[in-house]
């Protein structure tokens, strides 16, 4: 008879070994998970330290290199939409628009679009610059449009406004400041204002005594008030001034801008960022300019504007209402409620826009004749 004792003892040893291996594996697994968690926490700590380092470095970098702050104000390097040919406004549905270039000073060429009133679009097909220049002699009013920062004169919301104004019977002339779009040069507040003044004078020579109006949007409102202040100081104010989504001055706008949110409560915020803007000679002081403006003024602002907060437009209106130079001139503030969702750049969608702006008249309170788009002299 063969004994089974050694085999039983062997099997028992195997079971004990298996149990021990399982227990050892669980311990090692827990230890491995601990190592992985420790490694993850280490990586998170390094990332947080890197983010903190960047957060602290940026204010000093901006202070040491003020040109960075200027670029953030102008954003002229942001060309949205990309890959568009500014020489072909017809690609944007503007088939009654002509592209050309002017030279406000030696070595600086700026790109310009002239859109004729919608009533002339059939006649405009295939015409050259000479024909477009001759249309300034038509009885239709003229609007000089000054766009904001970033993008070009071909930005979609800008193009849509040109179409609306053209439909309302306006010549619309717009351009890219030096350093924007396909215009030469580098951006600056003085350069933008000089370009606007040059183009206004160029238009005035061709328009003569017909209504010539100025419309500014966002940063362009600062350019617009700079321009109109100069014109009024010379005794040659425009027919009217429209400010869409304006601010009081660039310091208050920069402090309220969403980009500044992460630094707004940082000790030394004004010294790091706002004083650096001033060091670049950038002011856009519309709150000061309105004390020198002597023409009808209309302010349009959406309550849900997150780029230029609504309260800045309202504050500018309150300042303007105390201006002695504006006494006797039409002054109006039009708010657009949150429910319309016009935000910063969609006021052109308002079906009441025609009733808010003047149609070749001297005031903004337009009656039902606003819907009659015939030239002023024919009404």
TrEMBL record:
Biological process (GO), any one: phosphatidylserine catabolic process
Enzyme class: hydrolase
Short name of one Pfam family: Abhydrolase_1
Keyword match Translocase: no
Localization: Endoplasmic reticulum membrane
Superkingdom assignment: Eukaryota
Domain AB hydrolase-1: 141-273
Swiss-Prot/TrEMBL keywords: Endoplasmic reticulum, Glycoprotein, Hydrolase, Lipid metabolism, Membrane, Transmembrane, Transmembrane helix
Main location: endoplasmic reticulum
Parts of the chain that traverse the membrane: 47-64
Catalyzed chemical reaction(s): Hydrolyzes glycerol monoesters of long-chain fatty acids
Bilayer topology term: Single-pass membrane protein
GO terms under cellular component: endoplasmic reticulum membrane
Keyword Mitochondrion: no
Role, per record: Lysophosphatidylserine (LPS) lipase that mediates the hydrolysis of lysophosphatidylserine, a class of signaling lipids that regulates immunological and neurological processes. Represents a major lysophosphatidylserine lipase in the brain, thereby playing a key role in the central nervous system. Also able to hydrolyze oxidized phosphatidylserine; oxidized phosphatidylserine is produced in response to severe inflammatory stress and constitutes a proapoptotic 'eat me' signal.
Family to which this protein belongs: Belongs to the serine esterase family.
Name recorded for this polypeptide: Lysophosphatidylserine lipase ABHD12
Protein's gene: abhd12
């Amino acid at each position: 008879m063969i004994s089974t004792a050694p085999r039983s003892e062997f099997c028992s040893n195997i079971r004990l070994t298996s149990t021990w291996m399982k227990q050892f594996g669980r311990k090692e697994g827990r230890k491995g998970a601990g190592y992985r968690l420790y490694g993850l926490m280490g990586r998170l700590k390094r990332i947080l330290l890197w983010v903190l380092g960047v957060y602290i470095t940026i204010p000093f970098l901006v202070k040491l290199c003020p040109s960075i702050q200027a670029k953030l104000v102008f954003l002229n390097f942001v060309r949205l939409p990309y890959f568009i040919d500014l020489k072909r406004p017809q690609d944007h549905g503007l088939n009654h628009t002509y592209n050309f270039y002017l030279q406000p000073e030696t070595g600086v060429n700026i790109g310009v679009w002239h859109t004729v009133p919608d009533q002339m679009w059939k006649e405009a097909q295939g015409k050259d610059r000479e024909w477009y220049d001759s249309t300034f002699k038509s009885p239709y009013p003229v609007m000089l449009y000054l766009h904001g920062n970033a993008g070009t004169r071909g930005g979609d919301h800008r193009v849509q406004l040109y179409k609306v104004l053209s439909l309302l019977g306006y010549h619309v002339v717009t351009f890219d400041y030096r350093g924007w779009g396909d215009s030469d040069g580098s951006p600056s507040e003085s350069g933008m204002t000089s370009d606007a003044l040059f183009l206004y004078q160029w238009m005035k020579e061709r328009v003569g005594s017909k209504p010539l109006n100025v419309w500014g949007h966002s940063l362009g409102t600062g350019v617009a008030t700079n321009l109109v202040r100069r014109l009024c100081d010379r005794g040659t104010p425009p027919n009217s001034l429209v400010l869409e989504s304006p601010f009081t001055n660039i310091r208050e706008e920069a402090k309220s801008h969403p980009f500044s949110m992460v630094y707004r409560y940082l000790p030394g915020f004004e010294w790091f960022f706002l004083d650096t803007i001033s060091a670049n000679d950038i002011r856009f002081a519309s709150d000061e300019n309105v004390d020198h403006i002597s023409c009808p003024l209309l302010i349009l602002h959406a309550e849900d504007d997150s780029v230029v907060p609504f309260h800045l437009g309202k504050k500018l209106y309150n300042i303007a209402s105390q201006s002695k130079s504006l006494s006797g001139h039409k002054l109006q503030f039009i708010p657009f409620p949150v429910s319309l969702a016009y935000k910063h750049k969609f006021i052109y969608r308002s079906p009441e826009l025609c009733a808010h702006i003047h149609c070749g008249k001297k005031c903004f309170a337009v009656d039902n004749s606003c819907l009659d788009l015939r030239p002023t002299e024919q009404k």
